[in-house]
Amino acid sequence: MSKELLEEIYANHHRDAYLWSRQCMSNSEEEAKDVLQSVYLKVLTGKAKFSGKSSLKTWLFSVIKYTALDYFRRNKKVESLEMVHNVTVNDNESHLDIDYYANTLKQLTDKQTQVLLLVFYHDYTLEAAAEVMGVSIGTARTHYDRGKKKLRKILEQEKQAVYVKTK
Amino acid sequence: MSKPNDQLIKDFFDQMKEHDQKVEMPTIENLSTPKKNRKGKYYFLSVAAVITVIICAFLVLNNTFESKEKKVLSNTEIDDLEQEIESIMSWSSATNDLIPKGY
Predict the structure, then answer these.
(1) Which terminus of chain A has a smaller tally of CB atoms within 10 A, N or C?
(2) Residues of A in contact with B37 (CB under 8 A)
(3) What is the ipTM of this complex?
(4) pTM higher than 0.80, yes or no?
């Protein structure tokens, strides 16, 4: 059963699972691989059991999220707020930078980033996103609205800066 | 879910998705390398260092005890000890005479 489940996950959701793992681990490839490896092991050994209450992808994303949190706790990886907020985008070429997206999203809180990624990137409904995050729909909506507002402001400022420079 | 004024945000995530198309997907074989093996060098070295320290401590302590056990007394030391024993014996018999009988 566990093996079949893992095969189904690998066949249908491996790409999304890896990308979500990467997003949960601040775009670190090695750490994302470690987290995904732990998740697959949990599925294989039956430590993580799929009850069928939600879709397989929603359940998988939730397991990845909690495994990533465990990984952070075990490795005591905490970034200072100064480091997170000390991000500046200087020119249009930065859009090509591999860290551009991660750095932009780092200006939001973790929960805001998660809910926006789940809804806009992974095409989840707000209800499913709340399930993955392990929060109520109301809380998810609050993070969603505040995150959108903040991200819109950041993107508009960047756009304005680019416009002024090219003028 | 998204409203018309979300277009800027939608575009941002669409660009991000497009960018991530280039991300190389790991195969399950790539994932199955145990973490300890990747960081195993330092783990092995630290274990080896601890074992070495334990062995050295054991050898040093063992050597100390052995040297204590094998200590041979010289003739003068034996004579001194005999004299000391004799003096204790004589002192003991002298004090015995002072104690009244029955005690």
Answers:
(1) C
(2) none
(3) 0.77
(4) no
